[in-house]
Write a structure and sequence with these properties.
It is found in: Mitochondrion. The chain has 5 helices and 4 strands; from the N terminus they run ααααββαββ. The chain is mainly alpha-helical. Among the domains are: 40 residues; 68 residues, no CATH class. Strands 1-2 form a two-stranded antiparallel ribbon. Strands 3-4 form a two-stranded parallel sheet. It starts with a helix and ends in a 33-residue tail after the last strand.
């Protein structure tokens, strides 16, 4: 660290010495000598961009024309690399429920919008019923007329959220029930249907 400080100090002293010698040894420019002596030479005409460029410079312009092959590759792409041509999709299917088109492996967006609206209605009903209080019991969402299907002992110890409309036909009751199957105790996988 001491070496770098000494180097910086040495460079600063050299620059100061150079500045002082340049300041005191400065000579007057020749124009000032003419001014002291009498007549000034005529000043040159100011230069314009047109005088500098003239007719000989073209900046940022291609010097060679692109070939038709390169132009077509830029426009439509290359079939082996990036292909820009619109190719018809072969992965479209028609929904069995609503009849709208959708891609294979993707849920039908029209049917899924119904699920989204139903889910938001359920969430709003749960929020209005339970608020922000912590829930330790199981929550059961019931539609109109479903509470009478079970005896009152069945609903004991459960938080019931009722929605005043009939259950949609596509919304099964099994979606809200917990599984009755016990988890497996072994990790062995037994193959089936090996006939």
């Amino acid at each position: 660290m001491a070496v770098s400080l000494l180097n910086r100090l040495r460079i600063t002293i050299q620059r100061l010495d150079l500045t002082i010698t340049n300041f005191f040894a400065k000579r007057y420019p020749p124009e000032l000598c003419y001014a002291l002596g009498g007549d000034l030479p005529p000043s040159p005409k100011p230069l314009s961009i047109k005088d500098i460029i003239g007719d000989g410079f073209l900046w940022g312009v291609p010097t060679n024309r692109r070939t038709i092959e390169k132009r077509l590759k830029r426009k439509f792409g290359n079939p082996y690399y990036v292909y820009k041509i619109m190719v018809p999709k072969t992965t479209l299917r028609v929904c069995n429920v609503c009849g709208d088109d959708h891609e294979v492996g993707v849920l039908c967006p029209t049917c899924y919008k119904k699920v989204i609206t139903e889910t938001t209605q359920m969430q709003d009903a749960i929020q209005n019923e339970l608020g922000l209080s912590p829930v330790e019991n199981e929550i059961v969402v019931l539609y109109a007329g479903e509470k009478d299907s079970q005896p009152p002992e069945y609903w004991e110890g459960k938080r019931i959220v009722e929605i005043d409309k009939p259950r949609p036909a596509w919304f099964s009751k099994n979606l809200l029930q917990q599984t009755t199957q016990q988890p497996a105790t072994t990790t062995d996988v037994k193959p089936s249907d090996l006939g």
